[in-house]
């Protein structure tokens, strides 16, 4: 009886872990998020440019201009939103993730 309970608990846990990986922040309603490039760049300046500046270029990635950020939008989405492995020390705040996610999903406008 208790073994079944334990197995059920693990099965449920795995299911929700995968759901979060496949559909991260699926509850974000982008119609309520003001996701401009200006806001995106200020998040990157505060949270990413320590490492991703022309001077440091961690992993060969510089995120200082609109063209650079746009060119890396897919990998930014993967690392900062889906995997949450960027920044390496602590994931972005929920509001920051929402802004990045909505900016990327609206086609990376330069606004
Ligand atoms: C403390 C330094 C540091 C900070 C802060 C940081 N990164 Fe990185 N980043 C790295 C290093 C080192 C690599 C190369 C190793 C790797 O890929 O894990 C990297 C690689 C990357 C890559 C390219 C790798 C790939 O998977 O394509 C992207 C995109 C990236 N970071 C995005 C970001 C974003 C977005 C932020 C801010 C939200 C950020 N990083 C903050 C150090 C940092």
Structure class: mainly alpha
Number of domains: 1
What radius of gyration results from the CA coordinates? 17 Å
Percentage of helical residues? 40-55%
Oligomer: single chain
> What is the ordering of alpha helices and beta strands?
HHHHH
In round numbers, the mean pLDDT is: 88
Characterize the overall form. globular
Identify the bound ligands.
Answer: heme C
- What is the count of helical runs? 5
Major sheet details: none
- Residue fraction in strands: under 5%
Distance between the termini: 59 Å
- The number of strands is 0
Low-confidence stretches: none
Molecular structure report:
This is Cytochrome c domain-containing protein. One of its GO terms (molecular function) is heme binding. α4 (73-82) packs antiparallel against α5. It is globular, with a radius of gyration of 17 Å. It has helices at 2-22, 37-47, 66-71, 73-82, 94-105. The protein contains 5 helices and no strands. The chain has 111 residues and is mostly helical. The chain has one domain (2-105). The N and C termini lie far apart (59 Å). Heme C is lined by residues 47-48, 50-52, 58-59, 61, 72, 75-76, 79-80, 86-88, 92.
List descriptors.
mainly alpha; binds heme C; 111 residues
Fold blueprint:
Elements: H1 2-22, H2 37-47, H3 66-71, H4 73-82, H5 94-105
Bound molecules: heme C.
Quick overview of this protein structure:
The protein is mainly α and 111 residues long.
């Amino acid at each position: 009886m208790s073994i079944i309970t334990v197995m059920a608990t693990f099965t449920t846990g795995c299911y929700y872990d995968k759901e979060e990986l496949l559909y991260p922040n699926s509850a974000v309603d982008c119609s309520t998020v003001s996701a401009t490039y200006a806001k995106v760049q200020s998040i990157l300046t505060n949270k990413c440019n320590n490492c991703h500046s022309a001077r440091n270029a961690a992993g060969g990635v510089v995120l200082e201009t609109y063209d650079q950020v746009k060119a890396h939008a897919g990998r930014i989405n993967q690392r900062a939103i889906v995997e949450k492995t960027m920044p390496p020390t602590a994931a972005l705040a929920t509001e920051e993730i929402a802004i990045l996610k909505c900016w990327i999903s609206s086609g990376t406008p330069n606004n």
